[in-house]
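Sequence in, structure out.
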Amino acid sequence: MKSTNMKSTNLTHINLFFLVALLALPVQLAAQHTRYKLIDIGTFGGPTSQTNGESVVITNEGTVVGGADTSTPCPYFSGLISPAFKWQNGVMTELALLPGGCFSFAGATNSHDGLIVGGADNGLIDPLTDVPELRAVIWQGGQIIDLGTLGGSNSVADAVNNRGEVIGVAENTIPDPFDFGGTIIEGLPSPTEWHAFLWQDGVMRDLGTLGGPDSAVAAVNERGQIAGISFTNSTPNPTTGFPTLAPFLWQNGKMLDLGTLGGSFGVSAHLNNRGQVVGFSDLAGDLAAHPYLWDGGRMTDLGVLGGTFGLANWINDAEEVVGGSTTPDDQAFHAVLWTHGGTTDLGTVDGDSCSIAFVNNSKGQIVGQSFNCDGSGEPRAVLWDKRGPIIDLNAFVPPGSDLQLVESHFINDRGEIVVAGVLPNGDEHAVVLIPCGPNDSEVCEDHSDSRAVLTQANPAAAAQTSTNVTHGRLTPETLAALRSRWTRRYHIRGLGTPRK
């Protein structure tokens, strides 16, 4: 991906011609062959099931992992007993808990040997935080294995590749004045340091830091390269209140500082199998932040849609980058695709003012969310497919169902999508959408005859929509909240709950 083509620019004449031609087609024609079967994974008798966002929670073979509630109260802590699950071929299997524990969560899996990674409580209360101790675990062959810590009370496994290399974060015993776990990676508060780790063949390796007290992981590729973030020193910056935070690439036993775009806060979100890293970084002065692509020693500013904030969430092996950006004057936030051809505003579902792209697969299909910037109304899980414009995935909810699909979490290379569905009472269920072939049965829903069809793929029209929907405009407060939400990677169910 050449940096000269990745700057934020207007669409080329070719892209404009393509968009004009596409908009001349009826929406139904552009996506007339899109049909999906919706499967509500359900629960273990309790209210909720969930999957992790922006993680490999569905393999190319269709195995889904996450966590689900039972109806049984936890005997030592508030909440329900909630084990991790594996769903495969229509069967939901409960994964083992640690002895004495009440909850676990499977955050990612691989395709090679079905290794599942995540976190689980061990039935003990952390004396430093007064919440359950959380341990990084793997599930293999029906067994759960506690990976331990770096001397502290807590750890969590975040991702695994097909070589069986597991990455995560773990506490040591050194006091940490910055509460890195609670403020940067959310849901893992601690007065001691967190460090990125690599676990393989029974050994947990501390990856260290870039010079500051803390580090964390973001992703691992099939070459064993690891992307993450780390403090580079221990001196707080006046603007952020934290030491300089920079993205890193760990390879060949060394942690490489990828730098920033001039500011003191940079985050890595993902890397592909070519070793290209994406994320976002503050510019000089820390008043604006842009998405970046790091490739072969160079960090390139991918540009924004005229606003002050943007971020890149994912990059596939075709060097296609997805994420989002604020529009001029920060009035809205739109999903964005960055390619060799430039920057494409992916727009929103008609009537919404904001959107974001989370993950793209090898076929260039993109999943994300469309919503009102001020939080009003219901957010919608969406798909951008090269065959047509943005699609509200609620179009595939069968008639009579009361599920609202609110956020897409992952799409595999077969086009199978894992989304979060919400019931009218607020309970969340993990949902799988499976593409249907021409000979599949009537259980498949067709985009053209379902209840939510109208979409918006034209950047100019989408910008006009967000301008007209005044209740959906961004405010500085809502933009700060969105940035905080999308910056923090870990959302561990069960942590932070008041003790009985």
